Description:
Elements: E1 2-6, E2 10-15, H1 31-42, E3 52-53, E4 62-68, H2 71-82, E5 87-95, H3 98-104, E6 110-120, E7 125-129, E8 137-148, E9 152-159, H4 166-173, E10 197-205, E11 212-216, H5 223-228, E12 236-238
Parallel strand pairs: 4-10
Antiparallel strand pairs: 1-2, 2-4, 3-4, 5-9, 5-10, 6-7, 6-8, 8-9, 10-11, 11-12
Amino acid sequence: MQVVYEDNHIIIVNKESGEIVQGDKTGDIPLSEDVKAYIKEKYAKPGEVFLGVVHRLDRPVSGLVVFARTSKALARMNDMFRNNEVHKTYWAIVEERGERKEERGERNEEGTLIHWIVRNEKQNKSYAYDRERPHSKKAVLNYKVIGATERYTLIEVNLLTGRHHQIRCQLAAIGCPIKGDLKYGAKRSNGDGSISLLARRVEFIHPVSKKNICVEAPLPDDNLWRAICPASPGGSAVE
């Protein structure tokens, strides 16, 4: 577990793919318990450690997860996420069909995707439609191409809504499934079971101190990530 930022009220950690944020039916130890153990040991906390989960990442996704260390921070962060006051930026390495690449042409393509998403609970999967359907929810994201190799494209995504599997579902709907994401049409899985989706950056006004917090996750330790985005491997935090 890698802590990227912490203070008395919040803690932000870099989740590895394969980790779960909260406990589920698998019985695997969740990241939240690891964070509790870290806080208990570092600060010699007696008794039970308070930790609030304010958002989640899918198991195969890596990157930044924000936790609250106090009930005051938890309540305020919940409101901030609900009101879209927390700005999350994701990086996704996607596959593209040949005709899609020809249509795109320039590497600096950017735009907005709008779909209506229907979640299938039994399949744990979402479906994107161009028009509103019964029980659908509007999904909106902004995207920008920021890198490419011969076979893959790196896309930066900013979510304007928070829907189930939204990035995975919407990118697949335009013919650009995320590398390794078999559920949404990728050609093959990644060796470690991950999908190439990274919660890269999170920015918000601190719920207590009111300082601006902007944190970046390190890139995954992977040759493709290094080739497609030759950035510094270290995470960073700015107040």
